[in-house]
Specification:
Layout (H helix, E strand, L loop, with lengths): L6 E6 L6 H14 L3 E6 L3 H4 L1 H16 L8 E3 L5 H4 L4 E6 L5 H16 L10 H7 L11 E5 L17 E5 L7 H13 L7
Parallel strand pairs: 1-2, 1-5, 2-4, 3-4, 5-6
Helix pairs in contact: 1-3
GO biological process, one term: angiogenesis
EC number: 2.5.1.87
Pfam families: Prenyltransf
């Protein structure tokens, strides 16, 4: 592949998320060298049960990578450990709708408080300032590629601010997904020409 995404989003729009299939996707991301992975479902099921997802990822690591398993580390990122996780080979963030629009609202409120306290002026607001105020992807770059699984033609609130330049590939389902489907999506990303509005 000519290029790999640095940050990949895995967005499930299906009603019944599969821990085993999502774990396979995360392990494949680790194995090909993707540094940051975000998992999102619009009901927040993975986020509420992230220990179950992590157990499944560790199990899949053992099964799929065998003895090479120790070369691939993954860690859940959260606000408390944001500075620690950047040293890991792959960092996983599990997101839900509260990390999308609600995070933008919270960032706007924080900026307004800074203006009210005269620590900032309204003219200070720009893309970089807003990026720094957003906590849902603290320490993460914007996603380069999002794999959206399911019949819904929407990302259902997945990081609306961060995906303005993201390539989005739709796949019918994450259930029983094959490595060939995953690799095909990566191949599509590697072949796309991103012009960033030019």
């Amino acid at each position: 592949l000519q290029k790999l995404p640095v940050h990949m989003g895995l967005v499930v729009t299906e009603e019944e998320p599969s821990y085993a299939d999502m774990a396979s996707l995360v392990v494949w991301c680790m194995a090909v060298g993707i540094s940051y992975v975000s998992v999102y479902d619009h009901n927040g099921i993975f986020k509420r049960n992230n220990s179950r997802l992590m157990d499944e990822i560790l199990k899949q690591q053992q099964e799929l990578l065998g003895q090479d398993c120790s070369k691939y580390t993954v860690e859940f990122a959260n606000q408390d450990k944001a500075d620690q996780v950047l040293n890991c080979q792959s960092t996983l963030k599990v997101l839900s709708p509260e990390d999308g629009k609600a995070d933008i609202v919270k960032a706007a409120q924080n900026f307004c408080q800074l203006v009210a306290q005269q620590q900032r002026t309204y003219t200070d607001l720009d893309v970089n300032v807003l990026d720094n105020l957003l906590s849902s992807t603290n320490g993460f770059p914007d996603p380069d590629l999002v794999l959206k699984f399911g019949p819904v033609d929407s990302t259902l609130g997945f990081l609306p601010w961060h995906i303005r330049l993201t390539e989005i590939v739709s796949l019918p389902s994450h259930l029983n997904i094959s490595y060939e489907d995953f690799f095909s999506a990566l191949h599509h990303y590697a072949a796309c020409e991103q012009r960033w509005g030019k």
